[in-house]
Design goal:
The complex is a heterotrimer of chains A (386), B (366) and C (154). With 386 residues, chain A is an alpha+beta fold. Chain A contains 15 helices and eight strands. In chain A, the strands form three sheets. In chain A, strands 1-2-3 form a three-stranded antiparallel β-sheet. Chain B contains 15 helices and no strands. The longest helix of chain B has 37 residues. The model of chain B has no long low-confidence stretch (mean pLDDT 84). Classes of the chains: A alpha+beta (386), B mainly alpha (366), C alpha/beta (154). Chains in contact: A-B, A-C. Chains A and C meet through helix 1, helix 9, strand 6, strand 7 and strand 8 of A and strand 3, helix 3 and strand 7 of C.
Chain lengths: 386, 366, 154
């Protein structure tokens, strides 16, 4: 047992002990930070044997911005603004995670209106994130049309957000103490129109992509990951549920208004790419179900229980809180020493664990399968690097 | 030849006209030859531009958007602008690459395309040269395309390009077999290798329905195998965008990239034209053997239009496939060829031989 | 198990593990020497069954001259959480790896090494995660300075 520091060059060294003259040579290829299907600036060093991937070595840090270090110099309210630059496709849910940690630590009581609106926004964000994932998934596999269908339908939710929140990607809407603005008067009507529009579209998605035999051949049985491996690698969200583990924080912790609505936790069986694909499509249906149940009954009340000008100070101690984003469990860990800025803030991001699952799932599959697996893990790289 | 419709068109190729004019006047002969050469070159340029524009518009409409709209009325001059841009671009040859091969590769690809265009019968009079081994010539010469891809991938000194080139090599030589087997069915039925005679033999009806089951199966086999030969989705792994960026033509830019690009689109046209010629009658209108009156009505539509219509429909079909299907993985692609299409092709060929021997088809020729 | 029972069970399993004050959930503090044994029991005992290492990070208590390493554990079988912390001196921060129990620890420990400089005994591939291999210094330490940093105007 000892401590020794290695370098990337050590990993990327070929073995010189090939004995047989007929053996093929393995070689290293760089699937660099700029690549059409690594979703973001992710660099994968691949050890290939012909077309078969023997080893995947992710190299990270291309979008490391030091969010945790920045957090130590900002006030709690300012840190919420940094949180939606993590997994920007779940921006509202990230805001909620940070706000919830702060509220629980400072014992701030919220009213029902805030909880219901937060839940609605989170579910709409989840649908939007999965729509984008579906489009990009089709594109990675060679079907270019789903990309535009996904974006066309995503624009409707983006317009809804823009009307209420003012932004389409980085929201900063859910603040500690409530919401930044009250919902726009047209919000309920637009959401209902969207639900009516999107239900048949989801069936269209199934016809276009899911029923296609080429897609089924490429996804079924590829990149299997069983439940125990998934738990050991800490994968969460649809990736974990596709492997058969029914862990969904919306059900087990029932924060927000999730305790008051009826929905199913979508669990797969085999943990292969097809299950991860199918789980996300079903989750879109479940999210629509939740929105349907909440949209007509938004209670009255104030949208902010605490004045924005009040400086938040948390009592000394450490606080950890988790929520379920579109990609998995986001955990916010704050250590406070009683001052205006946190002493240490750490974010446990879902994509970090989901990415490392590729080292387990992609070995001994082919290059085309690697793209399918990476796409089915649905990784957003700024979340990994923070 | 009894019980079938007479062929009312006199087909004459430009090469034939040149030969006939030679004893009288060298200049006329030369003129015809220049016409042939210029015709083919102009055809490539114009058809290439037209097809690229069509692809972008069709892709746009499939994807619920409009496609090019700004350059000219509904973007009609878009490809002209793109060609201008490509012509003016800097010609980059990577420093570590094999320079000679890098420059040579796109020329091979384009060469294969041009040589096939020269023998396609597009109408009784628009036909440059009628080689007596037409079908064999087409099969042989379209193999030049593979050479271009392999050279391009190898000479780029880029592992991803090499992967793309290797995949293309394996894919194209495999699917050539299936395509040839399907093509041989038509040769069996029409009894000739000459393309013009194959078209004329369909005066009593197109082979796709005249040779009933065997014909339809051969049509499907030929169409799918040819799609794989020209690297179109769902078989476009050599240039699999999401895996290999651009596969074998990653390191190409400017006019030499334009050659690869143009070659791909003209190949698409050639595949559609060959399918139309072999199975759908080429420039021959839709005739049903013994109905003289009906055939006379069909004959009123000029044969050039028939050819254009059939080819356009097949080109549309090829584009439709591209924008709908995901792509096959490389081992699934090889399995499809060697374990599925090849056995079917063989059985089909044997069945075709039996059908021809025992005259089991509509309105036999012999 | 709920927090109180959990803490009692942990105390029974490892007498040196003391409940950690000022935490919002069940938390224990354990010295480095007993750390590895406790983690092994937490992972493998069926009463605990902590099959998921949610998070692993470090806190730089520069005034006390120590790093506090924090492990957040969760059990999908029983549904309970536990936070385990251990302290190592800032000068020679060596702690055993828990990679054999949870695979993700291999990468989370690399991140902590990258940001704080904590060394993990027995880690097969200890190198930086986000920064280049030849970066000097450990950014999340309180006394980290480099030439790119900007001073915040007061």
């Amino acid at each position: 047992m000892s401590v020794h520091i290695t370098t990337l060059d050590d990993r990327v060294r070929l073995r010189k002990d090939d004995s047989s003259p007929l053996s093929t040579q393995e070689y290293f290829v760089n699937m660099g930070p700029q690549h059409p299907s690594t979703h973001g600036v992710l660099r994968l060093v691949l050890k290939l044997d012909g077309e078969t991937v023997r080893e995947v070595i992710p190299v990270l840090g291309y979008i490391h911005r030091g969010i945790e270090k920045m957090g130590e110099h900002q006030s709690y309210r300012q840190f919420v603004h940094l949180s939606d630059r993590l997994d920007y496709l779940s921006a509202l849910i990230n805001n909620w995670a940070v706000s919830m940690t702060i509220e629980k630590a400072a014992n701030i009581e919220l009213n029902d209106r805030i909880q219901v609106i937060r839940t609605l926004m989170a579910e709409l964000q989840r649908i939007q994130s999965h729509q984008l994932w579906w489009g990009v998934f089709g594109m990675d596999l060679g079907a270019f049309t789903p990309f535009l269908y996904g974006f066309r339908d995503r624009e409707i939710i983006a317009d809804i957000f823009e009307e209420t929140v003012g932004a389409r990607l980085t929201m900063n809407y859910i603040q500690p103490g409530g919401l930044m603005y009250d919902i726009h008067p047209g919000f309920v009507k637009r959401v209902k129109a969207f639900l009516k529009y999107f239900k048949p579209k989801l069936a269209e998605y199934e016809t276009l992509l899911s029923g296609n035999v080429i897609l089924q051949e490429r996804l079924r049985g590829v990149g299997r990951m069983d439940g125990q491996t998934a738990l050991s690698i800490g994968a969460t969200g649809p990736v974990l549920r596709a492997s058969g583990v029914p862990l969904d924080l919306r059900k087990s912790e029932a924060y927000g208004s999730y305790g008051k609505v009826a929905f199913d936790v979508v669990v797969g069986k085999n943990g292969d790419c097809w299950d991860r694909y199918w789980v996300r499509l079903e989750e879109m249906r479940q999210s629509m179900k939740i929105v349907e149940q909440l949209i007509d009954n938004i209670p009255e009340g104030k949208h902010m229980v605490m004045k924005p000008a009040v400086k938040i100070k948390l009592p000394e101690g450490s606080y950890y809180n988790q929520v379920e984003t579109a990609r998995g469990i986001l955990g916010v860990y704050i250590v406070s020493d009683g001052k205006e800025s946190p002493y240490r803030v750490h974010l446990r991001t879902p994509n970090f664990n989901n990415l490392w699952a590729i080292t387990e799932t992609a070995a001994n599959w082919r290059l085309g399968d690697l793209v399918a697996i990476l796409s089915s893990l649905d990784v957003v790289v700024p979340d990994i690097d923070r | 030849m009894t019980g079938i419709t007479e062929n009312i068109w006199q087909a004459k190729t430009i090469a034939q006209r040149a030969t006939e004019a030679l004893p009288d006047s060298v200049w006329f002969a030369l003129g015809y030859m220049v016409l042939g050469v210029v015709g083919v070159a102009a055809f490539i340029a114009v058809m290439g531009m037209g097809l690229i524009y069509a692809e972008r518009k069709i892709a746009g409409h499939f994807q619920c958007r409009l496609g090019p709209m700004r350059v000219g009325w509904h973007g009609i001059f878009q490809t002209v602008a793109d060609t201008l841009k490509l012509l003016l671009k800097e010609d980059v040859v990577p420093a570590q690459s094999d320079r000679f091969l890098h420059i040579l590769a796109p020329l091979f690809t384009l060469l294969g395309t041009i040589l096939v265009l020269a023998v396609l019968p597009m109408s009784p009079i628009v036909h440059v040269s009628d080689v007596n081994i037409g079908v064999v010539y087409v099969g042989a010469v379209s193999g030049f395309g593979v050479l271009g891809i392999l050279l391009g991938g190898w000479s780029s000194n880029n592992k991803w390009s090499l992967l793309g080139a290797m995949r293309a090599g394996a894919q194209i030589i495999s699917y050539e077999i299936s395509a040839t087997l399907a093509l041989l069915v038509v040769v069996l039925f029409s009894g000739t290798l000459r393309l013009s005679e194959i078209v004329e033999s369909q005066a009593a009806g197109w082979w796709i329905w005249r040779a009933h089951g065997v014909g339809i199966l051969a049509f499907l086999l030929f169409f799918v195998a040819s799609l794989a030969e020209i690297n179109r989705t769902p078989f476009d792994i050599p240039e699999g965008e999401s895996e290999l960026t651009a596969g074998f033509h990653t390191e190409y830019s400017g006019m030499r990239f334009a050659f690869f690009f143009l070659a791909e689109f003209i190949n698409m046209f050639i595949v559609a034209a060959m399918t139309a010629t072999l199975f759908l009658g080429g420039w021959m209108p839709f005739h049903i053997g013994d109905f003289a009156g009906f055939n006379a009505i069909m004959d009123m539509i000029p044969p050039g239009l028939w050819f254009t219509g059939k080819t356009a429909f097949l080109v549309f079909l090829i584009m439709w496939f591209r924008w709908t299907f995901p792509r096959l993985r490389v081992d699934q692609l090889m399995r499809l060829e060697w374990k599925v299409l090849l056995p079917i092709g063989f059985v089909n060929l044997i069945a075709a031989a039996v059908v021809v021997l025992f005259n089991f088809y509509f309105f036999p020729v012999r | 198990m709920d927090s109180a029972n959990l803490l009692t069970a942990v105390a029974a399993a490892e007498p040196n593990a003391k409940p950690r004050e000022k935490a919002d959930r069940a938390a224990v503090q354990v010295p480095v020497g007993n750390f590895s044994a406790l983690m092994k029991r937490l992972r493998n005992d069926s009463a605990f069954a902590f099959d998921m290492l949610c998070d692993h990070t470090a806190i730089d208590w520069s005034e006390q001259g120590s790093f506090e390493l924090v492990y957040q554990l969760y059990s999908t079988v029983h549904g309970h959480y536990l936070m385990v912390t251990t302290s190592v001196p800032r000068v020679n921060p060596i702690v055993p790896t828990v990679r054999e129990y949870w695979r993700i620890a291999e990468f989370q420990e690399r991140e902590v090494y990258d940001m704080f400089g904590v060394l993990y005994d027995g880690h097969p591939d200890l190198r930086r995660l986000f920064l280049e291999d030849d970066w000097k210094g450990f950014p999340l330490r309180k006394d980290y300075k480099d030439e790119f940093m900007l001073e915040r105007p007061e």
